[in-house]
Design brief:
Length: 1422
Amino acid sequence: MAERPLRLLLLALAAVSAAPSSETVGRRFTLFYFTVEPADTLAIRGASVILNCSVFAEPRVRIEWRKDGIHLISDERRQMLPEGSLLIHSVVHSKHHKPDEGFYQCVATIDSLGTIVSRTARMTVAGLPRFSGQPEAVFVHEGDTALLGCEVNADLVPFVRWEHKRQLVAVEGRFLKLPSGTLEISNTSSSDAGSYHCSVEAAGSSKTSEEVFLTVLPEMDADREATFLQKPASVSKMAGQSLILPCVVSGYPTPTVQWLHHDEIIWERSQRVALVGSGSLQISDMVEDDAGVYECVAESGNQTIRAQAELSVQVPPRFLKQPMNIYAHESMDIVFECEVTGTPVPTVKWIKNGDMVIPSDYFKIVNERNLQVLGLVKSDEGLYQCVAENYVGNRQASAQLIILKHDVPIPTVPPTPLTSATADHLVTATSGLLPSAPRDVVALLVSTRFIKLTWRPPAEPNAEILAYTVYYAKDGANRERVENTSRPGDLEVTIRDLMPEMKYVFRVVAHNKHGAGESSAPFRVATQPEVQVPGAAQNLVAQANSATSITVTWQEPHSDNGPINNYKLYYMENGAGSEQDVDVGALWYTMNGLKKFTEYSFRVVAYNKHGPGVSTEEVVATTYSGAPSAPPQNVTLEVRNSKSIVVHWQPPPPGTHNGVITEYNIRYKKAGRRGETDSTGGNQLSQTIDGLERNTEYSFRVSAITVNGTGPSSDWVSTETFESDLDESRVPDKPSSLHVRPLVNHIVVSWTPPEDQDIVVRGYAIGYGIGSPHADTIRVDYKQRYYSIENLEPNSHYVITLKAYNKVGEGIPLYESTATRPLTVPDPSPMMPPVGVQATVLTHDTIRVTWADSSLPKNQKITDSRFYTVRWKTNYPANTKYKTADTNTLSYIVSVLKPNTLYEFSVKVTKGRRSSTWSMTAHGTTFETVPTSPPKDLTVVSKEGKPRTIIVNWQPPSEANGKITGYIIYYSTDINAEIHDWVIEPVVGDRLTHQIQDLTLDTTYYFKIQARNSKGMGPLSEFVHFRTPKAPGSGKLGKHPPSMDLGTDTRHSIGGHNSPHGSPTSTLDSNIMLIIIISVGVFTIIMVVIIAFICTRRTNYQQKKKRAACKAANGSHKYKGNSKDVKPPDLWIHHERLELKPIDKSPDPNPVMTDTPIPRNSQDISPADNVDKEHTRRNSYLGREQEDGVSSMSSRRGLRPKIMMPFDAQPPQPVISAHPIHSLDNPHHHHHCDGPSSPTRSYLRHQMATRPLASSLDRANSTESVRNTPNSDMSPALSSQTHTVDSQETDVPSVTYLPGSQDEDSNRSVPTAHVRPSHPLKSFAVIAIPPASTGYEAASSSTPLLAQAGANPQVHSVKTASIGTLGRSRSPMAVTVPSAPDVAESAKMLEDSDTNYSPDELNEEMAHLTGLMKDLNVITTA
């Protein structure tokens, strides 16, 4: 809808002639307005009253009257005078019959023009004079001020007259009549003494009060305290009225009075403000600026008293801008403007020809004050009135609308004003050549709710086209609407807010500087029906069945658009704000379990295969009421005297009334007797029970009652009537005694009642505080004689006061002071915080936190009642609060964590009143898991200039649960197809947009998307659909965009051709890219083949060199090394054999890797080759270590190799590790290619000699699994990475060595196998070695333990290592052992060994280690 200035411009362009004659126009505005309107009137019962009304009009006018909006018929009492005024004879008014009181309006009608109504005048009836109270005798000192009251109704105050000694009192000078009718006499003298009475005269009847005597006492010249006889009161007055703010002060010396307004002294600086009487303020002809707070300040001697009152000045409505007369043509849109002001802010309503304008599709209230009429028709012509009103008054202003024929131009000369205050809304016009009709009006886009039109310019514009106007209406309707183009040159417009499946008629008119041209031929087009979803259900009815159930029924929609699958019933408790729903398969449903006497709203939505349809309008139903479900609250008793008790209570809690409480039932009884009942109204919250016995205890309880029954009763509350009727006209005396007994943090107060027992005591007030008794106050019952004041500060001085009180007030206090005792118990010392806090990640949402307690014994066993508090939080967002949990163990599993999130943990220990500080923090990041929410904000738009290409945009999922590695876009033309039949488009994870190309034109596509991370795929998003544009030949494709389901983004799409499947390149670019990819792939394959061939030949050459080096080093196996380079081995205690064995130190601190080292990748595993029987084994035990990427013999001795035994998914078994065994009789390392002195062979023989085996080796059937770890998930990985080969020896298993890196193939040590303990200081068992046999010895002497690749290695089958343990057989297991180093590195190792320890130094180190082992053995045994 274009802006109003543009519409006014079009009105100007619509004029045809610059100076139309009266014959051309034919019609003029008619002078028609009120000269006198009725005013608010105060009438006297039985008197006559006139409501004035006068109208100015050129033709004859008919005047009528309305009372309370209903036409008033004249009778013998109510007559209309010739000029139009209304005369009411003998106003009738009684308590139950008030026919004349109400709101009156004068209605003026000209048959050929229209109707106007006057402002609304309110008539109130004062009634006959009546006094609500009689004046009382007054005593006043001479020179002081006296007030004589006269209590009458406020509307009769203007009729009050005062008489003194039967003479009328002139209200002037010292005599002032206050706004309440009270007579003020200032500076009294003896002549003012005597009798006074007030009288009210109204409508010929009068009423006189009783006489009141004023006694003037002589002034004693004694100071009297200044007091207010009457203070100013807040008041509201209408602007223009007069006001007296009373301020009457008495005292001696005579007080002086000043007034302040906005904290400034008011001087009598103008005739509107004056001080009257003894100090009252009079303001005449009030204006808005007079509003505010006024303060009366009276000073008498050294005393100053103040009183404030607020004055509100109300302003009736006033027009800032009145509506203007308007000429217009049919189908135009016009706006009547009306701007008003007032205090309070007035409301605006509009009247057309005497009837209220009800807002609709064509009559709209704009900005809460202007009236907009859309698509003018002939019947809209007439008189329009803007009525502004607030509760101070109301005003009206009128304007006339004349609708001219299209061939009659709008006049340029302003016509005669409608009223003296009404302006005419006219525009200028010029003559000239007008444009012809626009051509080829077509519908570019037709939807269910809007139509987009386009056209070609007129064939004969005759000047520059400034704008186009589109007239449209429902087919067959008379009222046309107008829509204008927003910019010159626009040849299209979108008409919105249409109805579905409705035919509309359109025509277009062009405008140039001369005006509006010819109209195009009518063009009819129907909006599309909303055929996909069902319509609204019919005849929705909700009816209560009981206090907790409502049955809702409905009928099927008129347009179901296919079978209805189900209905969804939405319901909500009014005021709750949360709507709930339930699926229904029938045409009715009964809601049970509702609240009693509660209003519920219901609506129904039908569902078919396309989704939800149109919702019905809400219907409301209220459940039946029931008996209250809770008793009244806060039942208290107040002993009035010796025979009456007042019961007070509060209603039951909200939501438990279950209806309207009609009454309360009070039941009371004496001890041991049957009770009596009393009842009150539902709005009463207290009841006085009279006729009770003296000095008797009574119990009371209260219950609420509705029409459905009585609710539960409150608990019994007891009190005792007084023994006698005591005096309560004065406050009690002070208590007769007060005693205090201080303790560490409380004081016990005791007392005795006042000595005067004839005064009522309703309780005692105990005040206390440090240094002052006014810090806190506690009230106790009158029967209580002691009280303990709790939660005090130790070693502090408190002042305590005790006062008895009753209804009159508090009595004289009794004071006492004391000091609480000091706190002698010292604060407990804090505990040491837990140490060694570790966080082990278990799953994507759980982390195990472990710690040690340094205050526990070495076995870390908890024997007392201490507990630990674990707290954790994540640093994102920054303001995250800690979460805590308590446990009595040294570990805690924290669950329900967020995936892929870093958490920090800390622990503290608490024992009784002692607690530690928080420990140092440990951190852990939870594992990733699959996304649990789909990507958000999936939108599809067309690409500019490429109709076959669309752009898909989205946002990452809100719950990614890890790094998003990619997205998959699904799209299909069939929404019901299986998801695996949809076309997919993969997208990398760092992109949030993707292009899909080569789509079919004029086809609806459906799109879904899902995200993936390293753990898997997330859920699919909801589908969105998008329709590609039509083919270029089907119409003006470039003029309308394709649409998506959200309908929020439309762009022009121009035909083009792109490459398919979302590729961002064209067809030519795709072919070039395909050729490049194939070329690069072929080149890569050739290079890999060449490199593999070179590496194979090089490996064969190196193996030959290694065998030669081994033979060369056969005779030089002993050497002397530097003892400083040899580090003593780590030792561990084998409890079953008390042996010293070297223990491995894994270089990897990962706790998961401590038991069994796992290769980091497949390149870290060296395959074991089959070797010949003639190859000799080596006994070189050199350590390996890698620092800073440089490998040397001196830097590799700290790392000992291990045998890696891959395993399958068997139950956990002990771990076999390989460690070097040093000879204890020789401090030097021995290096051999073979020989009987091999430490490995010696160790094996030693084992065979000392421990017979329970079972022999069985290669095929008897093997032992050697894994003992709770983590069984690593078994397949290791099994898949371990290479095993066929060995020609049947008694010795082939093993595979897993090196730390590929660069250390030549630095290896011969390992020996033993069972690795699961506890640092205790092993499981010593493995059993197969018994000695001829075959085994032969294999031992001829088969090298370190396998090397032979000349022609042949892999026929997998051989496994078999170790018998306790006679149990296990499945085969592959073991890999490293190959021996080559000759060059062996020689270097021999040279480096010259710097090892000397024999004496090594013996000394071994003796030291032996002693250390004994100490450890003692500790473990203890």
